[in-house]
Amino acid sequence: MTSTDMPETETNVNALAGEFRQLRSEFTRIATLLEQTARSAGAEAASRARAAGEQVWAETQSTADHVADKIKEQPLASAGVAFGVGVLLGLIFGSRR
């Protein structure tokens, strides 16, 4: 080996070490961005699910209020329908052994 080979090799090794440090820094930055994106997506999905649940709950309450109003308006008809449905379900499920 000549004396000129060592400095070139040392220069290349130092350059590679610098590149690896830069790559490590970039990987750390990418990992941080991925983590932030995942957290944001999770929070957004939870927010959407909460909004959908609240909408379904509001519609359910509205329907229940509507049915309660109809029962108050026509209590005899409601009782008759409930009785008929009960008898029908009793016949369907009561005959099974």
Number of separate domains: 1
Q: Which blocks of ≥5 consecutive residues have pLDDT under 50?
A: none
The structure class reads: mainly alpha
Counted by DSSP, the helix tally is 2
Largest sheet: none
Distance separating the two termini: 97 Å
Radius of gyration: 36 Å
Number of strands: 0
Q: Helical residue percent? A: over 70%
Listing every helix as H and every strand as E from the N terminus to the C terminus, the arrangement reads HH
Silhouette: rod-shaped
Beta-strand portion reads under 5%
What is the mean predicted local confidence, pLDDT? 87
Key terms:
single chain; 97 residues; mainly alpha; 92% helix; 0% strand; rod-shaped
Descriptive account of the structure:
- With 97 residues, the protein is mainly alpha-helical.
- It has one domain (5-94).
- It has helices at residues 5-73, 75-94.
- The N and C termini lie far apart (97 Å).
Short description:
By secondary structure, this protein is an all-alpha fold. It has helices at residues 5-73, 75-94.
SSE topology:
Blueprint: H1 5-73, H2 75-94
Helix pairs in contact: 1-2
